[in-house]
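Re: the request from the purification team.
They wanted to know what the chain is likely to look like in 3D before they choose a buffer screen. I agreed to run a prediction and write the result into the notebook, where they can find it.
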Amino acid sequence: MAERLAISDHVLAAITSQRQASSEPMAAFFYDLPALAAHGRAMREALPPGVELYYAIKANSEAAIIDMLAPVVDGLELSSGGEIARACSCSTPRPWVLSGPGKLDTDMREAMRRGVEAFHVESLGEVARLQAVAAALDHQQPVLLRINPALPEDLSSRLRMAGTATPFGIDESQLADAVRAVDDAPNLALVGFHIHAMSHQRCEQRHQRLLASYLERWPQWRALARQPERVTQLNVGGGIGVNYLQPSEQFDWSGLCQALGQRLAAMDEPPLVRFEIGRFLSAFCGYYAIEVLDTKVSHGEGFVVCRGGTHQFRLPAAQGHDHPVIHLPRDPRQASEGERRPWTVVGQLCTPKDVLSRQQELQGVEVGDLLVLPLAGAYGYNISHADFLCHPRPDQVFIRDARESSEPETTSHRRAEPAS
């Protein structure tokens, strides 16, 4: 698998330039921003009429990523006060919603002051708190109720957010009470429902059936409202998975959109459907490049020890997979003559869990070579425990032009120092 993957010339040029500028072995992220924008445009162009695409910035909230996607998508989905600050600093202002459990009252107030489009409400208690905040600000606030619906077992994925006991959303059996609570709140207006049932969904047919189950229940959910004509939005969340094990076989987004369009066209009063996609938007633009520091064999297993590790790129350990690896030898001719064998790729941490990939067939690996892990643009660095062992944080290089001669932008993350 590793040798069949490819890196574009302008990304290779950026890696080479960054390596030449540093005296230390490399551990850095590279983001192909033109590729990110092109992928986002293709996803949005595949949408049928009456369907919107929001970017869930939790997947990667770096300013350059948000700035590149904002002109492409219909809006942004946020889940914290920190994400509000990042989204509102975007160079292209976009509509945004606030989701997630455990919202702080300060986050609610800040969101209202900054013009949040809607809140996704997670519980009856949150309805009451949101009403109190809105009343104190003399503000009328649109909301969507997040539903935790009953789901058939065959529609599940590896990471379930609904259809079982979770901290997310309101059980479908309690939905009538929640709708009544919003209708009774003078400063809140129910405009729709939100469902984010699962993550890592890689089967288009299964996701198609999942969306169909929502649309079948839409008329009943909407009829619970005192003014059903104001209830027009159905946010179906995200959860589209990335195939890290077989990168050439990815989720059929266009097929899902085509089937959704047909189903909406057949409805008498279809909702405005909104996706909030994170991983499937940003994953493909990212690369994590790490330099080989050592090679060794222990109890018959070969290990390639690299700069960096799971404290910088936690994704493989978090998802429990062996990440694809691309070998960039310092001397390609020498590498072509070297031994081919399986290697386990590890980092610098003092734990046996610091494993990025196991049993990767690589040829002629030497100290000083680079290993590049693609599909690193989502839930990689931003979910990592970067301060473990106090290693330096990796540079993040944002490639803004597909021409090899373009100068990439580099962001260095430094550990926060205590206030004096």
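For the purification team: Residues 317 and 353 are 8 Å apart (CA to CA).
Please add any questions underneath this entry.
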